[in-house]
Amino acid sequence: MTDNLRHDWTIEDVENLFQQPFNDLVFQAQLAHREHFNPNRVQVSTLLSIKTGACPEDCKYCPQSGHYNTGLDKEKLMEVRKVLEEARHAKSSGATRFCMGAAWKNPPAKDMPYIFEMVKGVKELGLETCMTLGMLNEEQANQLAEAGLDYYNHNLDTSPEFYGNIITTRTFSDRMDTLSHVRESGMNVCSGGIVGLGETVRDRAAMLIELANLPKHPESVPINMLVRVAGTPLENVDAVDGIEFVRTIAVAKILMPSSNVRLSAGRENMSDELQALAFLAGANSIFLGDKLLTTPNPKESDDRQLFDKLGINMDDTVEETSEQDMEEFARNCPLREQDTEQYYDAMKAS
Ligand code: SAM
Ligand code: DTB
Ligand code: SF4
Q: What is the pLDDT of residue 323?
């Protein structure tokens, strides 16, 4: 590869990363993060469910699957006008990207013209656009790219080995096929997974390796903590340990240092301290707004307070941090052995 990033991770490499002492792991992740990003900036997206419920897929974690009774009101595709109203509101709240999600196996042809109008309308508001509509064929991916869609979200969710325990109505390789159509179309790829499905650490490692060993890393890697929804088969699964969750964020950042790692679903059940650790481990993107697709998200005012406490700025532009800024962050990083005498390497000292 010409991008100077690794695309040849082995399961042993990644299991070893997971097993490191927590402080070493988070430190390494923060160093990797500072090579590519301003560490005190977080990108903010807002989510909207444009077509809710009655999904034919049987994803065991999902409140929108038609296979389970979660008490959700099913809805048809939202009117373009209403989507644009929500996008305007998201923009006024400080979001730079608007993500539209639909509970589809794949987008029906009859709805595509409305989808294109949504993309165009949201872009005209000066927001980046993201959609997650299920599987795409090559033609649909190209059409969405042509309509101006910036990002397509399509999560791997878990390892190839564990996949069949969670979803039986599609295969892991179906997922990979859509990712390659998205990549080929020129859109940015957003793909990550869920922690807390009952998977092992090896499964988390295997899922991240699938992403990191793609010919090009996804530009955006959402790491979701399972939201346990009553009525889904996973409603009573054990809660994920927060430290284990942060380890997953840190490993994602070390494997894919130039990607935006999103602290995604599950923040509603996280303390400020746990979220701060996730940012320290290299997460630099969140969903802002009281609702994810169908489940609650922290109140906007709470997020603003948290950012104030941490001295974090919301990314207020859709432009990337400049080379100059990056060099300054790398130069000023207080804990780089080659840069400063203040660095104390306890391993060498002992
Ligand atoms: N139907 C499309 C698909 O599955 O690709 C798009 C919408 S789907 C809701 C998008 C993603 O939301 C899933 O891939 C999964 O990662 C995440 N998700 C769904 N339910 C969740 C839950 N209960 N907790 C955490 N993440 C969840
Ligand atoms: C992602 O990785 N997480 C978001 C977004 N991409 C589409 C969705 C989270 C959904 C959580 C469950 C719900 O609100 O329905
Ligand atoms: Fe449908 Fe997506 Fe939910 Fe699976 S995750 S049931 S595909 S909406």
A: 58
